[in-house]
Amino acid sequence: IVYNFSDIMRYAMSDTKVVSLGEELDYVERILRIQKTQMGKSFSYEISVPQSARRAICPCLTFQPIVENAIKHAFMANPESGHIEISAEAHRGDLLVSVRDNGGGITAESIEAILDPSAYQVEQKGKVGLSKLNRKLKAYFGRKYGLDIKSRQDGIEGTAIIVRLPMGENIDLKQVQ
Q1: Residue 47: which of 60, 19, 72, 66 has the closest Cα?
Q2: SS3 sequence of 100-143
Q3: Interatomic CA distance for residues 22 and 9, integer angstroms
Q4: How many other C-beta atoms can be found within 10 angstroms of the C-beta atom of residue 135?
Q5: How far is CA 113 from CA 90, 96, 129, 143, 145, in A?
């Protein structure tokens, strides 16, 4: 736990603005390992992202608010068996990274408030982290990038937050740093 925590702190305190998806997933896995140590058998996670996808870039700390929300909400609904799954797939020249939990889901109204760039009421509802993240991704990479959120109303268990990123070869790092 101490080694994972020290690595987490070092990463979070760095001045780096853009990192590889691989670096970001290593950071997130440290968070998940600590959670697993604390929760034991009542928590599980799986990260299945191909090596080729790990070269994509993203803003530093992109996945922290997503994973923290998933941990919180997966356990609220399933305190005996919270599960988080992180996966990625190429889609029309972009990379879709999904963080899925088996929690209680999120309402359509909350999804709309998070994804609407003009929704200032989001801050009052405690979902400011995801809303700011969505705006940040769009500012870095363009309007087609950012978050998509699926939940029970879309026929899935829990919540899936999908992050659309450009593939590593499609972006010039100098433009976003």
Answers
A1: 66
A2: EECCCCCCHHHHHHHHCCCCHHHHHHCCHHHHHHHHHHHHHHCC
A3: 17
A4: 14
A5: 27, 21, 12, 17, 17
Tens-digit pLDDT profile for residues 115-173: 986 755 545 444 568 999 999 999 999 999 999 999 988 988 899 999 999 986 545 54
pTM, 2 dp: 0.85
The closest of 51, 49, 61, 54 to 98, measured between CA atoms, is 49
- Token reading at 25: 């997933």
Length of the chain (residues): 177
Distance CA 53, CA 69 (A): 23
HSE at residue 5, side-chain half, CA atoms within 13 A, is: 6
